[in-house]
Amino acid sequence: MSNRVYVAIDTPDLIRAKALATRVRHHVGGIKLGLEFFCAHGQSGVREMAALGLPIFLDLKLHDIPNTVAKAVQALHPLHPAILTVHASGGRAMLEDAKAAAPTGTKVVAVTMLTSLDASDLSATGVQGSAHDHVVRLAGLAQEAGIDGIVCSGAEVAAAKALWSQGFFVVPGVRPADAAVGDQKRVVTPRAAVDAGASILVIGRPITQAEDPDQAARAIEATL
Fold first, then answer.
1. Do residues 108 and 88 make contact, with C-beta atoms less than 8 angstroms apart?
2. In the 8-state DSSP scheme, what is residue 90?
3. Chain-centre distance of CA 42, in angstroms?
4. Mean pLDDT across the stretch 113-127?
């Protein structure tokens, strides 16, 4: 992959989203659009962003009963996203059905544990053990279900890669060494994430809130 960086365009403002993507498009490998954007603009907004010519990562983190998730994935077919997220904790049947419903060429990846959570947050939801063990367990589930990969933090990607050599690993919560951490709790640098086995990196604020987003993207690209 020539450029592993997907820029997270986390804004409901379509004009701003298009302007940001246009500025950085020569130094990123794709665009990640999440719930904020999708709830504001739906499929038509995604099509407008796709018209800029970059692969689209649709980060909707689908999580429901298997039939509902499968039908939601089918409804997204016209968009042909490069990557689509579901929640690993939805279980094996949901993961299998999501993959079966996805268009050819769409990578279905399972979110294991949000990078805004840590072990104490997990414990509060009734999950025992470390964050690392939880992520590795869900990576095994995703592999068994036959989907393409997982979303995990840079702290767990090496262990997941060791377990699943052919997996596709999406690492968010990536921050250049000099960047603010924000609301993330488990962060790594872009270079460290790639060295540990990340297939792609999701980077938002260090690029989108930089004084010069294009230069920020270029600087990150240079470290890889």
1. no
2. G
3. 18
4. 84
Share the mean pLDDT of the chain: 93
Place of tokens 């933090």: 153
Kindly compute the dihedral angle of the four CA atoms of residues 46, 49, 55, 60, in this order, to the nearest 10 degrees.
-30
Active site members: 61
- Burial (CB < 10 A; 0-12, 13-18, 19+), residue 108, is buried
In the block, tokens 């429901």 appear at 64
Predicted pLDDT of residue 116: 79
Euclidean distance between CA atoms 57 and 54, whole angstroms: 10
State pLDDT tens for residues 56-79: 999 999 999 999 999 999 999 999
Annotate 20-86 with DSSP letters as a single string: HHHHHGGG-SEEEEEHHHHHHHHHHHHHHHHTTSS-EEEEEEE-S-HHHHHHHHHHTGGG--SEEEE
- Phi first, then psi, for residue 47 (nearest 5°) are -60, -40
Give pLDDT, residue 117.
81
